[in-house]
Write a structure and sequence with these properties.
By secondary structure, the chain is α+β, with helices and mostly antiparallel strands. It folds into two domains: about 5-95, Phosphorylase Kinase, domain 1, CATH 3.30.200.20; about 100-270, Aminoglycoside phosphotransferase (APH), C-terminal lobe (Aminoglycoside 3'-phosphotransferase, Chain: A, domain 2). It is about 35% helix and about 15% strand. It is globular, with a radius of gyration of 19 Å. The two termini are about 35 Å apart. The structure holds adenosine-5'-diphosphate and magnesium ion (MG). Adenosine-5'-diphosphate binds near residues 26, 29, 102 and 211.
Length: about 270
């Protein structure tokens, strides 16, 4: 039962596959992807992601996410790629649903109190993969080069930046990123968008990661800065700053490197 008329435009193998599924639009992510949960009476659920190719940078393309999922599937728990298709300027990625709930979905302080060990263990699982084996680079130079293109194309708008940076011009903020690069990158395989909704917690164990288009070799703080920002964000009121402290302790960092946290949180604002 395809529920929306534009889904009738799905490329053929996908349309056939999904004819017997019910599609429900998901409005959690902040990326340019349109995401649907696809449920079936007797088959496991799937997720369908749709992205317009346009001039998007390659890390948000679903062809990139597909490659990364295939590489990661031999190393950690991630969704299985079921189908990929491109038609005209649109890419489609159909993946299995991970069992559980994304870590952003908590409805009480007690629930938020219980989740950090599992969150940290999922993130550490990825950071335990050898970066030497990882073919994807997401280091500072790569990201700064991408930011330059976004700035040139007018795709960055400070009105979406955290109030922490209010009153500063884009040029000043970008120059700061160029001048104040951390001297040493402590490279791991980092999520790239390590926010709570991209971590799927399974109460039966075996939690996993999703939304992996930006995974690659990067400083571990690239991930930890986004995760701590996500824990402290006002739209996640049941977590809060205290959980951020605990997250670092569980990760094994007694004294978090605040300069790196600030640096990577600012860098992230440009995406
Ligand atoms: N494979 C999956 N398994 C479980 N939940 C998923 C899966 N894919 C997407 N979701 C749910 O849909 C939300 C948005 O999907 P995501 O891939 O993160 O897209 P976006 O790029 O919009 O953030 C996720 O935060 C999660 O709640
Ligand atoms: Mg997401």
């Amino acid at each position: 039962m395809l529920s929306s008329s534009h889904l009738c435009d799905l490329p053929e193998p996908l349309r056939q596959y999904l004819l017997v599924y019910r599609l429900e639009s998901i409005a959690i992510g902040r990326s340019s992807a349109t995401v649907y949960r696809c449920t079936h009476l007797s088959q496991p659920s799937l997720f369908l992601k749709i992205v317009k190719v346009e001039d998007e940078n390659s890390s948000v393309l679903l062809s990139t996410e597909r490659k990364k999922l295939e590489w990661l599937s031999r190393r950690i728990i991630v969704p299985r790629v079921v189908e990929f298709a491109q038609a005209a300027e649109v890419q489609y990625l159909l993946i299995s649903a991970l069992l559980g709930q994304d870590a952003g979905q908590v409805s009480s302080p007690a629930e938020a109190q219980a989740k950090p060990p599992e969150i940290v263990s999922s993130v550490k699982g990825l950071h335990g993969v050898s970066p030497d084996e990882c073919p994807f680079d997401e280091g500072i130079e790569t990201r700064l080069a991408r930011v330059e293109v976004r700035l040139r194309d007018g795709k960055v708008n400070t009105s979406n930046f955290s109030s922490k940076w209010r009153g500063k011009s884009l040029t000043d903020l970008f120059s700061h990123l160029v001048k104040c690069k951390p001297k040493v990158e402590d490279v791991v395989v980092a999520h790239g968008d390590c926010c709570l909704p991209n971590i799927i917690l399974n109460p039966q164990g075996s939690s996993g990661l999703i939304d992996l288009g930006r995974v690659g070799r990067a400083d571990r703080y690239q991930a930890l800065a986004i995760l701590s920002g996500s824990l402290a964000a006002e739209y996640n009121p049941f977590y809060g700053a205290a959980r951020t402290q605990r997250m670092f302790a569980l990760y094994g960092i007694d004294t978090p490197d605040q300069a790196k946290i600030d640096y990577f949180q600012l860098l992230e604002e440009f995406f």
